[in-house]
Amino acid sequence: MDRPTNMVILTGAGISAESGLRTFRAEDGLWEDHRVEDVATPQAFRRDPELVQRFYDERRKNIMAAEPNPAHEALARLDREWDGELLIVTQNIDDLHERAGARRVLHMHGEALSVWCLACDARHRWTGTLRDAPGCPACGEGALRPDIVWFGEMPYEMDRIFAALARTDLFVSIGTSGAVYPAAGFVQQAKSAGAIALELNLERSQGSAWFDETRLGPASEQVPAWVGEMLR
Ligand SMILES: [Zn+2]
Fold first, then answer.
1. Annotated catalytic residue: which of 72, 107, 109, 124?
2. Protein residues within 5 Å, CB atom, of ion ligand 1
3. CA–CA distance from 21 to each of 130, 135, 156 (Å)?
4. At what angle do helices 70-81 and 219-230 cross, to 10 degrees?
5. What CA–CA distance (Å, rounded) separates 177 from 166?
6. Digit-coded pLDDT (tens) for 182-200
7. Can 34 be counted among the known catalytic residues?
8. CA of 90 to the centre of ligand 1 (A)
9. Against a cut of 0.70, is the pTM above it?
10. Which of 55, 78, 176, 228 has the most other CB atoms within 10 Å of its CB?
């Protein structure tokens, strides 16, 4: 392919799985043995806020104990050394891209280490628990929720993502099932704008047919190899 000048990279659960972080599984609808309807919807939060807060307290703890793997490190290297336009859109709520050193990262499903105050709308970095309804650092109200996009809520920064997809030459999808919209539709958006599409995944996904090329294998092997080609 011609050397691209403008890339959009979508990352999903497969890239963090190798750092030991499990996520929602589409096959059985379970996330760490919880039904998604019980922990990852606005209705669940209204019904049983304590269960939801405990669930994300646990996610926060696990994320802080995890380390970036060679796939995160390779993308951070690409971000540092690639002088074209680049946007890493992640569906993951962990901070492993940032901890590996990547800067051009957009969290479309929010971040576990961020809280959102429903009283004053402020967002704060948060590494502790929320189960005892601590006060918001800005307004003092005990109205903090995880800054996560739950099922049934609108993902963040869709305008910015679609603008980037409309002008990208290369769309790369890493470790995502191709089953959850709107992210599953990004490849069609990029293709209709004329981009080449590459998929790096452990196994063929529901969306594989849309890609010009699919490379199968662990992200920790496939991503460093691909980044090496791009920076050669
Ligand atoms: Zn507040």
1. 109
2. 117, 119-120, 122, 136, 138-139
3. 20, 29, 22
4. 20
5. 22
6. 899 999 999 999 999 999 9
7. no
8. 26
9. yes
10. 176
